[in-house]
Amino acid sequence: MKLLTSFLLAVLTFTFSAQAADRPAGTGNIAVVDLKKVFDGYWKTKQADLNLKDEAGKLDKTRKDMIEDHKKAGEDYKKYLDGSTDSAVSPEEREKRKKTAEAKLQEMRQIEESIGQFDRSARTQLGEKQRNMRDKIVTEIREVVNKKARTAG
Predict the structure, then answer these.
(1) pTM to 2 decimals?
(2) Dist. CA 16–CA 11, nearest whole Å
(3) 7-10: which pairs have CB atoms within 8 A and are 24 or more residues apart?
(4) Are 20 and 28 in contact (CB under 8 A)?
(5) Is 39 in contact with 138 (CB distance < 8 Å)?
(6) pLDDT tens digit string along 91-121?
């Protein structure tokens, strides 16, 4: 955020100095804009932040559901693993339960990979949306500042 603010401040400074270079000496006005204050106070920024938080909440709910599936698979795995060592059942049944436990373990690993992939994807998706939102809003602010600079002289 500091890098973005510094960059935009530099762009605005360059814009104003370039406009000042077009005018004869002594006729220019200099204006300073606190871009952070304008950006944070802009209603579209607040609306976009709410939208991002809403989407993050939905993604978090999906992630929690995936974690719940992982826990359930873990419980099933433990149940089948305990059943595979039960001496009260036939050796064929123990072998069957052991294979089922191995399948559940494989399912757990797949769910873990899915959760990791989902986390990376969600983080990237939210980051891109936030970046696009900020770029769009900063562009709007710059347009308004440039328009005001042209009309005010």
Answers:
(1) 0.67
(2) 9
(3) 8/35, 8/138, 8/142, 9/35
(4) yes
(5) yes
(6) 888 888 889 999 999 999 999 999 999 999 9
